[in-house]
Amino acid sequence: MIRVVTDSGAHLPPALFEELGITVVPLVVNMGGQTYYEGEDLDLEAFYDYLRSSPTLPTTSQPPVGRFYEVYRRLSEEGATIISLHLSSALSGTYAAAVAAREMLPGADIHVVDTQLISVPQGILVLEAARMARAGATAKEIVERMEFMRAHTVFYFVLDTLEYLAKGGRVSHIQALMGNVLQLKPILKLHEGRIEAHERVRTTQRARARLQELIREYARGRKDLRIGVMHTRLPEVAEAVARALREELRPAEIFVAEAGPAVATHAGPGGLGLACYGEEAEGGGA
């Protein structure tokens, strides 16, 4: 029996976690002098109320090692082999915390994977791992598949402002100032686990359209597409984008997920992201 574990940095519709028996270890958000666990005692409305009204940005951190230890101990005592998939080690200490917990259980069969991703592309990998486990794949087969998929999954996103990324240390204040002063909308991407600028466009509308173009370009010559649409407080925009991509690309799967507080702390409201993974068709591929 293989059980899949991830962290709340993986964004999926909540019903999928339950349907596939995926265990989610919550990321930590500190705000107003209190510590909260994402998805347990902090809802999005309270989080955004604080984000709008407080002069102090919330801070985020990885789950305590003890949280991973308890999950791993319980599942291993049930006889499970564990595949634990976590957000990029370049952006968070979550992977390191999971590895530390694994070392505390030397008799357990635990495989910890750095997805080098976050949000909906991490969710795409988690879904694949859980479905492979249900289909009877071995741990070795699942880990190898995860390593392949992470290298061939794209994630582009645009934020309403770089202010929150700058405050959180993810981009420089100079970059944020230039973007805001010039009213440029940088399209960002994940590359080898890190956030990088991909290109800049002039307006939010053009940036959102360009995100869809980038997914179309990636999808050319590929099949069995899986697409994730991430947003921060943009449900109608995200659903409209998902509808357009579904009609045009006919993906094998497409889902919409709102980012949780740990990611939204750095993204701020008004963010939109698109992730895609597809198998290269014979004679095709980008």
Would you summarize the structure shown here?
With 286 residues, the protein is of the alpha/beta class. Helix content is 42%, strand content 28%.
Could you walk me through the main structural features you see in this protein, from its secondary elements to its overall organization?
The protein is an alpha/beta fold. The chain has 2 domains: 2-27 and 62-151, Rossmann fold; 153-280, Hypothetical Protein Tm841, Chain: A,domain 3 (2-Layer Sandwich). Helices cover 42% and strands 28% of the residues. The protein has helices at 14-19, 44-53, 65-77, 94-103, 120-134, 139-151, 163-167, 173-181, 204-219, 235-249, 261-267; strands spanning 2-7, 23-25, 28-31, 34-37, 59-61, 81-86, 110-114, 153-158, 185-191, 194-201, 222-232, 253-258, 271-280. Helix 5 (120-134) packs antiparallel against helix 6 (139-151).
